[in-house]
Amino acid sequence: MSHQPSPTPGVTKRLCSWIHALSLDDVPEAVKTRAKYLILDGLCCALVGAHLPWVEKAAKAVFAMEPEGNCTVWGYNKKLGALAATLLNSTEIQSFELDDWHALAPVHSNSILLPPLLAAAGQKKASTTAKFDGKSLLLSTIVGYETGPRVGLCLYGGHMLTRGWHSGTTFGHAASAAAVCKLLELPVDAIEDALGMACTQACGLMSAQFGSDVKRMQHGFAARNGLFAALMAESGYVGIKNVFEEPYGGFLSTFGQNSGKEPPYLVDELTKGLGEVWQSDNIRVKSHASMAGTHCTIDTVAQLQNEYPDKLSSLENISSIGIEMSEAAFKHGGWKAQRPLSALGAQMSCAYVAAVQLIDRQVSPQEFHHDLLDRDHLWDLIDKTECFHTPELGEKYEQRVTIAFKDGSTVAKTLAAPWDVNPGLSNEEILEKFRRFTDGIVEAQRRDAIERLVLGLEKVEDITVLEELLARPTRNPID
């Protein structure tokens, strides 16, 4: 086995060269504009999540074990070291299943990118007085939006969920490292070192979805580890070279083992269409406070409620509910929910959210207050629900819901995708979500200042101003 440098750069080097060379002028205006709205959505999720009970539990533990540092923990008026602050801030964004995801290669990009980028900026300003402007943050975030999904597409995207990997935490280490390297303006070889160090830390088990607190933190591991890799590379520490295409122990060859696909992985997806096909076009923003695979369930039930209002006005007449879905959605959200269930487990269960939609006619943060998780009439519906893997429905989002009644009648509806996938939320709808979900969480003046700053990023001279707005305490949305 030869480890001599190839005369033709492989995909890892080509990706690193593209990251290094990319300028904001290379990015289409529509992509830059969309990125600002996506960033705003990520911060919305952090503001909503900062003081949820499971985030406060994490913050208390980390504050006890970590010394004070230079980087802001959002919503707490406290500062920790860059790595610890990144971990907690990422946990805030991922805390309530409200954050973005990539429709083809599931990864929650903002939770992986915004915390390490702002932590790196805060750390550098404190130690060297260097300042990073809004253009740098915007460009670095776009680099991350491109990198994470491309890594995922190499491994057949959502197929990683089917295999039991937490796909976003597996794909996300490289995205975090790439974004921070761009912010720090590292050379190509250092970017390659950072990606090699990030990828050797990548993992994440999807069994975390069954009620654990750590599901909320796993993207934080990717964010923190990517930041660590970039800072180590900046110092001259050498990482794995050619980490994606290396045949023995490389990222793709190892995670592609026993994939059941032929070929086991798609190495060319890493760089295909760089600078022409923008992966941010496939980043989706959530309209419901639950795992993305449950959204088609919610929207299908909602359509049935609209089409059959009389039949669904008396829920006690329902005898059974059947939910048919693709393999990835079934394994991710089709499991049998058991009483009692934590808020996390509830947000990951198609049967649970179907019952919530039938009863409350919405799936928002308020529906996951601990007093509402164990309602008898809710669990009566869940116990009547069965989820099925139906192969002919396809591999992505398509679902069919069939509701049977005690009089022998049935109603059914099939949707190809939830509306936040197709057509997806517009920029105006993302802004409306930001205002609606932060109402009562932060004061209006502060909310408006964050909105103006993010949507005008190109004019911001020092992005740590954003952290000052994020630092002050927020309210718990389910208190």
UniProtKB/TrEMBL annotation:
One of its GO terms (molecular function) is lyase activity. Residues 288-455 form the MmgE/PrpD C-terminal domain. Residues 14-258 form the MmgE/PrpD N-terminal domain. InterPro entries: MmgE/PrpD_sf, MmgE/PrpD_sf_1, MmgE_PrpD, MmgE_PrpD_C, MmgE_PrpD_N. Belongs to the PrpD family. This is MmgE/PrpD. It comes from Penicillium cataractarum. The lineage of its organism: Eukaryota, Fungi, Dikarya, Ascomycota, Pezizomycotina.
